[in-house]
């Protein structure tokens, strides 16, 4: 692991106190049809979505789903820096980062493998939605920071980034809504929080245990991102994807409302 | 992905062909190209395999070392994937050129293997919380002829099948723990890879989808769906790749195909591996890059 010499590193060996406590395995994700936070299987957490939060950026958005908080800023279109990156299609880049303090365990300053993986997935979720043909020789950069992670961070990031992109005025074919689902046994829990998220280390003994994240362009009805973790039966994967597609379609008005609000606010400021 | 230059007319030719279930090399849409597998090719490893899928050639070496288990899983061994894109395959890989692709392949494999039932990592634990076997799976791309993910996953499974882990005995006296390695080089343990996944990549070309896309077909394809499929037909990893998007109904169709093809692939791979093991030392060696 390369370290940044300009930063003061913590002590060489330090341990998170939480790693000493023995967590009891969470066999009861669903009790009497209710989840740990009182939601039903299909219920999402309340969403707060606001566009235009970073004044310096071309476009930006902030999303909050209870304790999951994600901020995203879009810069560009601007000229490509490196000659090799020249292309007749616009270049989209994505940087996904968990804030160092955002998770239960402290993250490193530099992007780790998980963050790089999420960056690629986010990029591939947004690429089909942006009219890149209209921006030859240009690049657009998306920066996503997770301020606090309480599960479904990638899904929230997809939604947030697409709203930020639309807020920047860059031409798009459609917005992208993201949604995650946790598969546990025969149950499909929508929008899992951190406790419910699939973690390969705590073996629950279930045959079906995993999670699926889907990004959907709602008005085109096209899936732009799909990813899964854990071992899941085929029929359940199909169900999970279908359910995510459904929920993403339902999220569409929320995204639209956020954009309309930001535009009218901007008009009020100017007028 | 490594790109080939293809004119619009050539692309149209390929796309129209696939619409009629005819590919430019004569295959049907669900057919793999000819695949050759050879195990135990590098003697300095604990297990190795070489897979040649038409023009794609991948060499995998597994090295077993003793190390510390990760803090989240104190009673499990570790599996680490590393992909090296050799600049021999294409000059684009020179320096850091292949890094993105390498990371993508290793991430996909890590995800596909990251479920408790794929590979029994509990067997690799030596002393709980202190010592375990770490399997370093190093994947070397020698030649790129399309469909790297599938070929890499097949090679990984074959190499893990071939892996021999020396037997160790742990003795404990007065709080002092000793690990003793067996003197007998044939006193080894094998891994059970029957439920390990294979990755199947489905490329959407035109209105239909194909498995095992060649380099030319990859150039025509905007969106791919990758699936980690086990022998039982369960899905261990799913990923959409590429700059295009997919219709929900075609996602379903592609997954159906992926499951079917993946199960068949796993089955024939296990048959070939068993056959190869039976031959033992008598088998013919073919060597690299023919």
From TrEMBL, chain A:
Superkingdom of source: Eukaryota
Subunit structure: Component of the RNA exosome complex.
Disordered: annotated segments: 1-24
Upper lineage: Eukaryota, Metazoa, Spiralia, Lophotrochozoa, Mollusca
Domain (Exoribonuclease phosphorolytic) ranges: 44-171
KW Cytoplasm (keyword) present: yes
Function in brief: Non-catalytic component of the RNA exosome complex which has 3'->5' exoribonuclease activity and participates in a multitude of cellular RNA processing and degradation events.
Endpoints of the signal sequence: none
Chief subcellular location: cytoplasm
Protein's recorded name: Exosome complex component MTR3
Keywords: Cytoplasm, Exosome, Nucleus, RNA-binding, rRNA processing
InterPro entries assigned: ExoRNase_PH_dom1 (IPR001247), ExoRNase_PH_dom2_sf (IPR036345), PNPase/RNase_PH_dom_sf (IPR027408), Ribosomal_Su5_D2-typ_SF (IPR020568), RNase_PH (IPR050080)
Record's subcellular location: Cytoplasm; Nucleus, Nucleolus
From TrEMBL, chain B:
Record domain Exoribonuclease phosphorolytic: where: 32-166, 197-260
Nucleus recorded as keyword: yes
Keywords, comma-separated and alphabetical: Acetylation, Cytoplasm, Exosome, Nucleus, RNA-binding, rRNA processing
GO BP, one annotated term: U1 snRNA 3'-end processing
Gene Ontology MF terms: mRNA 3'-UTR AU-rich region binding
Main subcellular localisation: cytoplasm
Family matches, as SUPFAM superfamilies: Ribonuclease PH domain 2-like, Ribosomal protein S5 domain 2-like
Domain of life: Eukaryota
GO cellular component: cytoplasmic exosome (RNase complex); nuclear exosome (RNase complex); nucleolus
UniProt keyword Signal present: no
Subcellular location: Cytoplasm; Nucleus, Nucleolus
InterPro entries for this protein: ExoRNase_PH_dom1, ExoRNase_PH_dom2, ExoRNase_PH_dom2_sf, Exosome_comp_Rrp42_subfam, PNPase/RNase_PH_dom_sf, Ribosomal_Su5_D2-typ_SF
Family of this protein: Belongs to the RNase PH family.
Subunit comment: Component of the RNA exosome core complex (Exo-9), composed of EXOSC1, EXOSC2, EXOSC3, EXOSC4, EXOSC5, EXOSC6, EXOSC7, EXOSC8 and EXOSC9; within the complex interacts with EXOSC2 and EXOSC4. The catalytically inactive RNA exosome core complex (Exo-9) associates with the catalytic subunit EXOSC10/RRP6. Exo-9 may associate with DIS3 to form the nucleolar exosome complex, or DIS3L to form the cytoplasmic exosome complex. Exo-9 is formed by a hexameric base ring consisting of the heterodimers EXOSC4-EXOSC9, EXOSC5-EXOSC8 and EXOSC6-EXOSC7, and a cap ring consisting of EXOSC1, EXOSC2 and EXOSC3.
Name of this chain's protein: Exosome component 7
């Amino acid at each position: 692991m390369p370290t940044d010499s300009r930063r003061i590193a913590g002590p060489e060996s330090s341990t998170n106190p939480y790693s000493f406590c023995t967590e009891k395995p969470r066999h009861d994700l669903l009790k009497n049809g209710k989840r740990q936070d009182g939601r039903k299987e299909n219920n999402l957490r309340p969403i707060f979505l606001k566009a235009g939060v970073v004044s310096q950026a071309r476009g930006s958005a902030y999303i909050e789903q209870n304790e999951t908080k994600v901020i995203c800023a879009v810069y560009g279109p601007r000229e490509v820096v490196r000659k090799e990156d020249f292309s007749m299609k616009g270049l989209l880049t994505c940087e996904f980062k968990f804030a160092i303090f955002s998770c239960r365990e402290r993250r490193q300053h530099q992007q780790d493998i998980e963050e790089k993986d999420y960056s690629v997935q986010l990029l591939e979720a947004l690429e089909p939605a942006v009219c890149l043909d209209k921006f030859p020789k240009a690049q657009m950069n998306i920066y996503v920071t997770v301020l606090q992670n309480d599960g479904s961070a990638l899904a929230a990031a997809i939604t947030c980034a697409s709203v930020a992109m639309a807020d920047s005025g860059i031409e798009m074919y459609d917005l992208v809504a993201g949604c995650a689902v946790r598969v546990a046994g025969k149950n499909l829990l929508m929008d899992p929080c951190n406790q419910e998220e699939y973690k390969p280390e705590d073996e629950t003994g279930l045959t079906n245990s995993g999670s699926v994240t889907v990004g959907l362009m709602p008005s085109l009805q096209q899936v732009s991102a799909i990813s899964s973790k854990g071992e899941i039966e085929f029929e359940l994967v199909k169900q999970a994807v279908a359910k995510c597609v459904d929920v993403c379609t339902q999220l569409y008005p929320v995204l639209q409302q956020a954009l309309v609000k930001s535009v009218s606010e901007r008009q009020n400021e100017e007028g | 992905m490594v790109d080939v230059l293809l004119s619009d007319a050539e692309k149209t030719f390929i796309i129209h062909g696939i619409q009629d279930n005819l590919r430019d090399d004569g295959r049907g849409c669900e057919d793999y190209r000819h695949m050759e597998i050879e195990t135990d090719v590098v003697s300095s490893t604990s297990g190795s395999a070489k897979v040649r899928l038409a023009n794609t050639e991948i060499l995998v070496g597994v090295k077993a070392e003793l190390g510390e288990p990760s803090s989240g899983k104190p009673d499990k061994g570790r599996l680490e994937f590393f992909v090296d894109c050799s600049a021999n395959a294409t000059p684009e890989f020179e320096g850091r050129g292949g890094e993105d692709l390498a990371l993508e392949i290793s991430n996909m494999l890590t995800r596909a293997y990251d479920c408790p039932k794929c590979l029994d990592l509990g067997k690799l634990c030596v002393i709980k919380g202190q010592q375990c076997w770490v399997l370093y799976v190093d994947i070397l791309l020698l030649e790129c002829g399309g469909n790297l993910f599938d070929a890499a996953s097949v090679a990984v499974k074959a190499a893990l099948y071939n892996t021999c882990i020396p037997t160790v005995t742990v003795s404990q006296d007065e709080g002092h723990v000793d690990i003793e390695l067996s003197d007998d080089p044939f006193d080894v343990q094998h891994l059970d890879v029957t439920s390990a996944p294979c990755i199947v990549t489905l490329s959407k070309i035109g209105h239909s989808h194909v498995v095992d896309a060649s380099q030319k077909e990859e150039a025509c394809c905007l969106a791919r769906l990758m699936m980690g499929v086990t022998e039982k037909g369960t899905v261990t990893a799913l990923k959409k790749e590429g700059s295009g998007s997919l219709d929900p109904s075609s996602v379903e169709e592609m997954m159906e195909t992926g499951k079917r093809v993946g199960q068949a692939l796993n089955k024939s791979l296990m048959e070939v591996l068993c056959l190869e093991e039976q031959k033992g030392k008598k088998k013919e060696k073919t060597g690299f890059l023919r």
